[in-house]
């Protein structure tokens, strides 16, 4: 197809030349100092075109000769830059292939080529990447001194120009990850604090912060970070729920007195306080620290909306209420009886109501319900044992030592 097009163009040029130059009746006259030169117009035009072509060719040849040293320098520079790029690519390939010693040598070769070429030194981004690759290889080889040296060089180079911001962010994230590998949570948190707000909200930065806060024993900060990660879909739904609950448990279990427990509870997110499992753990901790009133207050919203809870949540709620029954007010009996009437087959609600009746010294109704719980092998062993012990305490109050002994024996036989 290309040959046909060229033939058509050649024919067109021939036709134009025949029409324009076919008649040779034109004349060009030149006068100089009394002399006159007459030539045909066609010859004059041909000589003119040829002269222009020769002049342009001469100028280009002269320009090529004068710029030859400069083009030679550019060629040598391109060759050195190509060699540096190849060395850096080789270093990356060796690093991903787990040959860290070779990767370090290749990266050093690329940096050496750049340092020996003044024109290439002006590219801080390439040099910063080379130092980061050397630092990563040194970290894998457990050479912390060399790793820190290369990392510092990379940070210094990346801070010199606004075009190397990505290298600086990468260096800080890598440094935080390495600090976590060294079990240095304080340094990791300091490095993450140096990140821009936009970078600090990235998933990788949040993952590193979560690990650092957990390592630094900061469960509340870890809980907030984990919640951000869950919003960014950094975990599956089930994994996020389990992690958030475990962090909330860790924060609650760290309280050493009732005031500290109340402060921790107030610092929890509203979503955590509306989680029945977290509230149950806080209530159990309140019972252990001698603050049953606070525990009952944290559970009251769930009891008021008990119809919205699942059977598993009702079981957790009932088991959490029993340890904080001391000092129970009469309004709670009405609340518990209403729950039992709504769910008459729920054994856990009957268990909680039986202990509440015993706390209010309503022995007759309490004894019947607690005996049913104690004899029900489907109930947890701890709930059955607590029920038999309460029955033993009630028998002791009535002076019935035989029944008291039977209740203690039944509690002791529960595995």
TrEMBL record:
Keywords: Cell membrane, Membrane, Transmembrane, Transmembrane helix
Chain ranges of the HemY N-terminal domain: 30-118
Residues annotated as transmembrane: 42-66
Membrane topology reported for the UniProt record: Multi-pass membrane protein
Main location: membrane
Subcellular locations according to the entry: Cell membrane; Membrane
Highest taxon in the source lineage: Bacteria
Protein name: Heme biosynthesis HemY N-terminal domain-containing protein
């Amino acid at each position: 197809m290309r040959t046909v097009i060229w033939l058509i163009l050649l024919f067109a040029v021939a036709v134009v030349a025949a029409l324009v130059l076919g008649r040779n009746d034109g004349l060009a006259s030149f006068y100089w100092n009394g002399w006159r030169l007459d030539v045909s117009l066609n010859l004059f035009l041909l000589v003119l075109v040829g002269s222009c072509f020769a002049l342009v060719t001469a100028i280009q040849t002269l320009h090529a000769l004068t710029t030859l040293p400069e083009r030679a320098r550019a060629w040598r520079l391109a060759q050195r830059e190509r060699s540096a790029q190849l060395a850096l690519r080789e270093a990356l390939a060796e690093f991903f292939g787990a040959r860290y010693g070779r990767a370090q040598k290749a990266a050093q070769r690329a940096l050496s080529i750049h340092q020996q070429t003044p024109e290439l030194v002006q590219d801080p981004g390439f040099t910063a990447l080379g130092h980061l690759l050397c630092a990563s290889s040194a970290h894998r080889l457990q050479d912390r001194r060399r790793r820190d040296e290369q990392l510092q060089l990379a940070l210094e180079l990346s801070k010199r120009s606004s075009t190397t911001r990505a290298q600086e962010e990468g260096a800080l994230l890598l440094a935080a990850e390495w600090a976590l590998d060294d079990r240095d949570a304080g340094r990791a948190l300091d490095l993450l604090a140096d990140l821009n707000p936009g970078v600090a909200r990235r998933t990788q930065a949040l993952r590193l912060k979560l690990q650092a806060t957990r390592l630094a024993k900061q469960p509340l900060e870890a809980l907030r970070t984990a919640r951000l990660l869950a919003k960014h879909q950094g975990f599956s739904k089930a994994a996020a729920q389990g992690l958030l609950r475990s962090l909330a448990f860790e924060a609650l279990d760290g309280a050493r007195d009732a005031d500290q427990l109340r402060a921790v509870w107030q610092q929890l997110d509203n979503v955590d306080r509306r989680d029945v499992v977290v509230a149950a753990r806080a209530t159990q901790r309140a019972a252990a620290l001698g603050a049953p009133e606070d525990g009952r207050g944290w559970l009251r919203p769930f009891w008021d909306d008990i119809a919205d809870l699942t059977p598993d949540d009702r079981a957790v709620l009932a088991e959490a209420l029993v340890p904080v029954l001391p000092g129970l007010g009469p309004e709670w009996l009405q609340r518990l009886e209403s729950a039992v009437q709504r769910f008459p087959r729920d054994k856990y609600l009957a268990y909680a109501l039986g202990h509440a009746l015993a706390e209010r010294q309503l022995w007759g109704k309490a004894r019947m319900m607690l005996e049913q719980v104690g004899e029900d092998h489907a109930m947890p062993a701890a709930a059955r044992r607590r029920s038999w012990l309460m029955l033993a305490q009630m028998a002791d109050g009535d002076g019935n030592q035989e029944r008291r002994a039977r209740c203690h024996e039944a509690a002791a036989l529960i595995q």
